[in-house]
Design goal:
The complex is a heterodimer.
Chain A lengths: L4 H26 L4 E13 L2 E13 L5 E11 L2 E18 L2 E11 L7 H11 L5 E8 L4 E5 L4 E7 L2
Chain B lengths: L1 E4 L3 E4 L4 E4 L5 E3 L2 H12 L4 E2 L1 H8 L9 H17 L6 E4 L3 E4 L5 E4 L2 H8 L11 H12 L5 H22 L7 E4 L5 E4 L5 H17 L8 E7 L11 E8 L5 E9 L6
Parallel strand pairs in B: 10-11
Antiparallel strand pairs in B: 1-2, 1-8, 2-3, 3-4, 5-7, 6-7, 9-10, 11-12, 12-13
The chains are: A alpha+beta, B alpha+beta.
């Protein structure tokens, strides 16, 4: 069978291109900066039939290796009392299912020394962010160039702006 | 192989055809005439002895040779080429032999069709017909050459396969439903809503605006969604984001309000 030299050339070009493009892709993935997204949220939740308000700055971080976290910084108002909130939820082992959908294990909640929020009030907020036990399914929907909607399996949580 | 005589006549050594390049007039030669012309051309402008010509054209092919035969066919050749516009093609060198007139340029190519296809329509004919130049020409022609379309296709494939991972990496925007509110701000629903829902929701949104002292202006965008409620008295979990747009029309800052259960007012 006579070998078509043009076909061989095309095949070699295609294979070479695939190799180069794979290297380019891996390079970009490896050197990708962590995803950091920030948004201010005023949560109006319910505790013991009373409104509890959380006015917090939320900083959402996902690193390349799948670890990350959610920083909650602000104030909590319940009745006529105000508390300060300064906590960090730590995520481990992000499992990515699609480009914008993944689950994370909440490996811990760290409380800063300046945090004065009672645990029972914080658990109200935590219950909204983590509907399950320690595993959250999160979805990141891109709304605009740097604008993302963060949602869990139950509801939309907040709109944040990516900082690069 | 092809010879080009005087820039206007092509001689194909396989088919023994003379082709007038401009008029496309073709003259088929009998094999003896063809062999004679081929042998003379292989000398370029060198002198071919009569004995050599008799041997190559007749003896080697089992034919009886004679000087009369040779003279006759030389005369036929001269006439043929003269009719095609090439005068004084052959010169008799006394006691030495026959040669092609020095003033008539002779070029050779491997094949007229082959070279035209491989080198393009405007190619110039190859080198003078020496053994070295023929070998060079052959190797140049036999090197793979690819047309412009083929090269463009290769470049296109390379670009597509290099760019495509970068395209995969960048997410597209989530399709949403949006419209302008009174005041100029853009209201974006984060899911599909019916026209009936839109009317009811607008009323609630305006109440939320009032509660948070939010002014609807052109440089602002509102993202809105709520969870499905099991009754008509409330909208369930509700998220509304008041976003401020930058110069490029994209949000630069968003203030979110999350209601555990928004009761319809």
């Amino acid at each position: 069978m006579k070998v078509n030299s043009k076909a061989i050339y095309l095949l070699v070009t295609l294979i070479f291109s695939i190799i180069i493009s794979t290297m380019v892709y891996l390079f970009f993935m490896k050197n990708k900066e962590p995803f950091v997204c920030n948004g201010f949220v005023g949560y109006e939740l319910n505790y013991n039939d009373k409104i509890v308000t959380f006015n917090i700055n939320q900083n959402f971080l996902i690193k390349n290796n799948g670890d990350g976290g959610l920083i909650l910084l602000g104030e909590v108002i319940y009745g006529n009392r105000e508390y300060s909130l300064n906590r960090r939820l730590e995520f481990l082992n992000r499992k990515k299912y699609q480009e914008d959908f993944f689950t994370v294990n909440v490996s811990g909640v760290h409380k800063s020394l300046s945090d004065t929020t009672p645990e029972e009030l914080f658990r109200v907020l935590l219950g909204e962010i983590i509907p399950g036990d320690t595993v959250i399914s999160l979805k990141l929907k891109r709304l605009d160039d740097k604008t993302y909607l963060v949602k869990n399996s139950m509801s939309n949580l907040f709109v944040c702006i990516e900082s690069r | 192989m092809n010879y080009v005589i005087d820039g206007m006549i092509s001689f194909n050594t396989t088919r023994y055809e003379l082709l007038h390049i401009e008029t496309n007039e073709v003259v088929e030669l009998v094999s003896t005439t063809g062999r004679l012309l081929d042998t003379l051309l292989s000398f370029g402008h060198g002198i071919a002895s009569r004995d050599y010509l008799l041997e190559m054209v007749w003896d080697k092919h089992g034919l009886r040779s004679s000087n009369n035969n040779l003279n006759q066919y030389l005369s036929i050749l001269r006439k043929l080429l003269q009719d095609l516009g090439c005068d004084d093609f052959l010169i008799t060198v006394p006691k030495l032999g026959i040669k092609i007139n020095d003033e008539i340029p002779i070029y050779c190519t491997l094949s007229y069709e082959l070279t035209e296809k491989k080198m393009g329509r405007d190619h110039q004919f190859g080198a003078l017909c020496t053994a070295k130049s023929l070998a060079t020409l052959y190797s140049k022609l036999m090197k793979p050459r690819y047309g412009r379309n083929f090269i463009l296709m290769s470049i296109f494939i390379i670009i597509i396969t290099v760019i495509s991972p970068l395209m995969i990496n960048s997410q597209g925007y989530t399709p949403t439903l949006s419209y302008k509110m009174e005041g100029g701000c853009e209201l974006v629903f984060l899911r599909d809503v019916s026209n009936k829902e839109t009317k009811n929701i607008n009323i609630q949104i305006k109440k939320i605006f009032k509660e948070h002292n939010f002014k609807c202006k052109e440089d602002r965008r509102i993202y809105f969604d709520y969870s499905t409620s099991n009754n008509t008295r409330d909208l369930g979990r509700l998220l509304i984001s008041f976003c401020y747009l930058g110069n490029k029309g994209s949000p630069t800052l968003c203030d979110n309000v999350y209601y555990y259960n928004w009761i319809i007012k």
